[in-house]
Amino acid sequence: MVASSRPASPSVIELTYGSEVDWYRNLAAAGGCDVVYRGVEHQVDRIEPCSTADGLAAFGCPRSLVLRLLRRHEFRRLHIAETTATT
Asked: Under a CB-based contact definition with an 8 Å cutoff, are residues 2 and 72 in contact?
């Protein structure tokens, strides 16, 4: 499981264990992935850097407060392809 903002374009993920974990390295090497949110599949077609301030803001309150207290600072933007949402 990964902490993510709602799947809009772009969606933001928080890298709890940093960018050197296998799942993230595989995602970055592939250039995208599929995200399932509430039973709907969304295709990610690009991954971009995200500043800590923008990453925290994407989660909104109170999640951003919890992330700040946990000193989370690694975020990435996931661009959701426009016409790939399926059920």
From this structure: no
